[in-house]
Specification:
Elements (H helix, E strand, L loop, with lengths): L1 E6 L7 H15 L3 E6 L13 H5 L10 H9 L4 E9 L2 E2 L1 H18 L4 E7 L4 H13 L13 E3 L3 H4 L3 H26 L18
Parallel strand pairs: 1-2, 1-3, 3-5, 5-6
Antiparallel strand pairs: 3-4
């Protein structure tokens, strides 16, 4: 079992990374592998809703050459995902929003049924709003949402500050424990022959008469 940890901060080893490392260490203790995948600082285009991914029949964005398809390739062999982001104006970073828009528009078929969660890092405020915004991607994609003992947030301006946020770090460890438990339960269900839910044909309704 393996979990992909997305580091959506422009600072490769900053506060978001520090929180994700706490998750990774606890996952390892629970016997679950993980990989921290940094989105980097290169410009990342947003989704244009061109529909090219649907026409191709592949869980890939037609605009290649950046981290979106690279992350989708990693998700082929990963069983869960946790997306980490700094809080910018009470929301995720623009890099994370663009990344998730394209990743989920093109790759939702690949991502569905895989447990997911979010981690946010802020100096002071806006964390719960940013956390909720990321979780909406999972909630609309048939992905079991992994929770913790509180909103998955850490506080501080530097990694050293985050390491003093004892409640935040404990929340990260609880999140990792819950992710490991859910993955093990899903694996046990598969081995017991429990089938995934059958999906009805998709119904789309426009609210214009």
């Amino acid at each position: 079992m393996k979990v992909l940890l997305i580091n959506g901060s422009p600072h490769k080893e900053g506060c978001t990374y520090t929180a994700l490392c706490e998750v990774a260490d606890e996952l390892k203790r629970q016997g679950v592998d993980s990989e921290i995948f940094w989105l980097g600082v290169e410009p990342l285009r947003s989704c244009m809703a061109c529909g090219g991914c649907a026409k191709s029949g592949r869980s890939r964005c037609v605009f290649g050459g950046d981290v979106v398809n690279e992350a989708l390739e990693k998700m082929e062999s990963c069983d869960g995902i946790i997306v980490g982001s700094p809080v910018h104006y009470a929301g995720p970073s623009g890099q994370v929003t663009s990344f998730l828009g394209r990743m989920f528009y093109s790759g939702s078929a690949l991502l569905q049924n895989k447990p997911a969660s979010a981690v946010v890092s802020c100096r002071r405020g806006g964390a719960s709003a940013a956390y909720a915004m990321i979780c909406k991607f999972f909630e609309m994609s048939n992905m079991p949402l992994v929770t913790s003992q509180y909103w998955n947030q850490v506080h501080g301006s530097t990694p050293a500050d985050v390491k003093q946020d004892l409640e935040g770090l404990q929340t990260m460890r609880t999140l990792a424990d819950n992710m490991a438990y859910m993955l093990k339960c899903i694996d046990a269900a598969k081995r017991a022959g429990v089938a995934l839910p059958e999906r009805e044909p998709r119904v789309r309704t426009n609210f214009i008469r």
